[in-house]
Amino acid sequence: MNKIDLLQATVYDLLPDVIGITESWTHEDVLDSELTISGFHLFRCDRKNGFTGGGVLLYVKDTLNPVEYHTKGYYGEHVWCKIHDLLIGLCYRSDNRAIVGPNNEAA
User: Fold this and answer.
1) Residue 102 above 70 pLDDT?
2) Is residue 73's pLDDT more than 60?
3) For 4-105, where are the E strands, in sequence order?
4) Over the stretch 36-57, which tens digit does the pLDDT of each residue have?
5) Please, which residues have CB within 8 angstroms of residue 60's CB and are 6 or more apart in sequence?
6) What angle do CA 2, 50, 98 make, to 5 degrees?
7) Which H or E run contains 10?
8) Cβ contact 34:57 at 8 Å
9) How buried is 77 (Cβ within 10 angstroms: 0-12 exposed, 13-18 middle, 19+ buried)?
């Protein structure tokens, strides 16, 4: 949250089509409008269960007409979108067993 202005300036300079951010530290009290980047669609997944940190944000240019896509599997914090036949996803997996559980150890 404290770097949204820097992110917007970087986007203005680099003109990316897709932006993936891990460790967003966003939570349910942070509104989508606080994370908006003009010309981009935001997909987000905040860390759940009262843990701090984590979270992912995926920004995709509006002109690409991205559509949110839901996977059947579980992979911690993740977001997916579909652009025509292309799937774009962003995943963050903590190595904290309290968050991911004892049967989901990092490889």
Assistant:
1) no
2) yes
3) 18-22, 40-45, 56-61, 67-68, 77-83, 86-92
4) 999 999 999 998 777 778 889 9
5) 17, 18, 19, 40, 41, 43, 66, 81, 83, 88
6) 115
7) helix 4-14
8) no
9) buried
- For residue 48, what are its two tokens? 């759940």
Q: Which of 22, 33, 30, 31 is nearest to 79 (CA)?
A: 22
Sheet with 86-92, side-by-side order of all strands: 67-68, 77-83, 86-92
- Residue ranges of the domains in the chain? 4-98
- In angstroms, the CA 83 to CA 94 distance is 28
Domain 4-98 - what CATH class? alpha beta
SS3 22: strand
41-50, 53-62, 97-106, range with greatest mean pLDDT: 53-62
Phi-psi category of residue 21: left, alpha or beta, with phi > 0 → left and psi -120 to 50 → alpha = beta
